[in-house]
Amino acid sequence: MTTFYPGPSKVYPEVADYAAEAVRSGITSLNHRSAGFMDIVRETVRLLHEKLDIPTDYHIALVSSATECWEIVAQSLTDKTTLHAYSGAFGKKWLDYTQRINPQAVGFNTLDKQSYEQGNAVYNALVHKTDGSGTICLVQNETSNGTQLTMNKLLRIRREFGGIIAVDAVSSMAGIALDWEQADVWFASVQKCFGLPAGLAVLVYSSRALERAERINDRAHYNSLLFIHENFRQFQTPYTPNGLGIYCLMRVLQQVPPIAKVDARTQARADAWYTFFENELNQTPTSESRFRLLITEPGLRSRTVIAVEGSEADIKAIKEATKEAGITLGNGYGQWKNTTFRIANFPAITDDEIEQLKAFLRNYSLTF
Ligand SMILES: *Cc1c(COP(=O)(O)O)cnc(C)c1O
């Protein structure tokens, strides 16, 4: 079974062995405050710094999911004004979660003209504050529609805004190089680009974020950032952690190349996918009107999730046909549920699998 689902997504096949190793060697039965377990946490954190090129003065904690990270940011890091700029369903969902905790938080859709203008007014007020207050929440890679926030745009926001910037990088961390210094908080769950089973998330935060957390001093939750930080400093966790997931993460990190190399490969594959849909498929006379890229502006296009649009009937038909051929495409999401399919461009997917899907699509558009 070949899967291009953008989460849960293809797991590295080696994970089957790593999981068996963890159980057989007794790692999954280790007390999480024992030296043996703490060594695994320490090594996992070290490897995250090394392989993902995370600056040494950024802290790393492991939690359960990206959704948990949304709440951690809202509980432990958000002071007065919080602004969410989003471009799709996950970003909107994050705003909804924040507003349940912090009803004053505001958000806007960067792809909607009217919403953008309103949001921009809040943004301009925020950047004029000189006391370092305020939080801006951004989604680096919007998995629902295959849009991305470029590092250049993030750089600009960083230059203009003196508060805390938190970035959801769930479907891009470990798939592309991130410019860590341009934000204070980054997080991702591992079932996307890390190629692991769900149930674990990586939370990266700067010293500035920690200072903000200390000022807010939220200690009302088991997952208050201060508790998490105090525990992780000793390579422990406030609660019994997902030991199996942490061990598999450590083993996968040992296996993967440094992020610069992964980034180059992701970029080349993304370019090839976009060329494929823009040029190659459209050379056949019938296909042009049936499938097209959802995001027309090249600068907005994600490098790790490609969204392809078509009529409801065409989307349904191609999903069924691929399924019969043993290939799973990602369903559409949110408002694009029935009119798009998505292709994950995640590191665990092999060149052979990509070729298999391209061959299928070529053939499909010729014979349909
Ligand atoms: C998948 C995803 C999430 C949710 O991750 P969970 O691990 O289910 O909490 C959040 N944001 C983005 C952009 C995602 O792709």
CATH architecture classification name of the largest domain: 3-Layer(aba) Sandwich
CATH superfamily of the largest domain: Type I PLP-dependent aspartate aminotransferase-like (Major domain)
CATH-defined topology of the largest domain: Aspartate Aminotransferase, domain 2
Counted up, domains total 2
Beta-strand segment tally: 15
Helix/strand/pairing class, anyone? Answer: alpha/beta
Just give the CATH class of the largest domain: Alpha Beta
Sheet with most strands: 7 strands, mixed
Bound molecules: pyridoxal-5'-phosphate
Q: What is the spatial order of strands in the main beta sheet?
A: 2-10-9-8-5-3-4
Low-pLDDT sequence parts: none
Mean pLDDT: 95
Q: Helical element count? A: 12
Radius of gyration: 21 Å
Q: Report the order of strands and helices.
A: EHHEHEHEHEEEHEEEHHHHEEHEEEH
How much strand content do the residues show?
15-25%
- For the termini, the CA-CA separation is 23 Å
Name the shape in a single word: globular
Helix content range:
40-55%
